[in-house]
Amino acid sequence: MDAFTPAQTTELVSRIGAKKARMRIDKMFINSFMGGALISFGCALALSTSSSPWFQTNAPGLIRTISAMVFPVGLIMVVLTGADLFTSYCMYSVVALLHRRCSFLDLLKTWVVSFFGNLAGALFFMAIIDGGTFETGAYRDEALAFAKIKCVTPQWHQIFLKGILCNWLVCMAVFLALSSREVISKIVSIWFPVMCFVGLGTDHVIANMYFIPLAIFLGAPKPLTTGYYIWKSMIPSLLGNIVGGGLFTGVVYWYLFLAGEEVEIHFDTQPLDTAVYEQGGPIEHQITATGAGTGYSNDHKERGAQAIPHSGNNGVSGFAKDFHARHFKKSNSASESSA
């Protein structure tokens, strides 16, 4: 199977969490702003798809499923462009903290900056897309009705519980995407868990930053106000997302695969300057009739670790170099060796 193992994927989650904790705050905020805007593309498309009065009356389950099928485009863009979402930080930062690669202050910094960056991006996108798209007819009616279903109808504890389920699935989508080695597999890995959380009507705190402010902007009737939204929807979904992503993915997979374990990833076996491309892993060195090699072997120290020109397999990867084990050492002095 051409994929990272669950243990290797959890190790990657830890390294990504540590790398993101080192990011400059201004860059983290801008990257989170982009994450909030990109996820809102999927929100707007799903909401537009749901604006079908006949289906809402006669086949509500079908139109919800169809809407759920188009929503993942937002998270796909987030993951493939490297944008930041608070909800994925719930997994990244928790695993890096438990693995002693970042501090609790680092975790708080990433959570606070990503949360408000996502909020700014979602509100910015909402202000743009509202320019006529959802102002009239069935589109406006659906925007108001959807916000009522999300914020007014359910009780506080129900939103909290749905928030747990939501980010459990979202972080599973990110986890599966990390385990995949090429783009199509990453897209498919994201698509189905995200489709599941949308189809089940769970609560994603960042997605709701688009859905509910849009309804407020369109003149939603009371009790749906900004204060009501923050207390009734934002806080419970935020706490639920933390539990779902941090506990049910972050803590669980850290305990299963990293607690007391040292996990190597394929490119850890190569020097940092020529870290082997993550899709291939350590490739046996072969010599063709013309003398051109096709890759690397584990005994690269004896044969030389330089990339072979024009081989089509130079073994240099931005991903592999950025996340090579030499960059990530645990803070505990007893574990100074690379993980």
TrEMBL record:
Organism field: Hyaloscypha hepaticicola
GO cellular component, one term: plasma membrane
One BP annotation, GO: nitrite transport
Protein name per Swiss-Prot or TrEMBL: Formate/nitrite transporter
Domain of life per record: Eukaryota
Main location: membrane
Membrane topology of the entry: Multi-pass membrane protein
Family, as annotated: Belongs to the FNT transporter (TC 1.A.16) family.
InterPro entries: Aquaporin-like, For/NO2_transpt, For/NO2_transpt_CS
PROSITE patterns from the UniProt entry: FORMATE_NITRITE_TP_1
Keyword field: Membrane, Transmembrane, Transmembrane helix, Transport
Compartment(s) of residence: Membrane
Keyword Manganese: no
Pfam families: Form_Nir_trans (PF01226)
Gene Ontology MF term list: high-affinity secondary active nitrite transmembrane transporter activity
Spans through the membrane: 29-49, 69-98, 110-129, 159-178, 190-218, 238-258
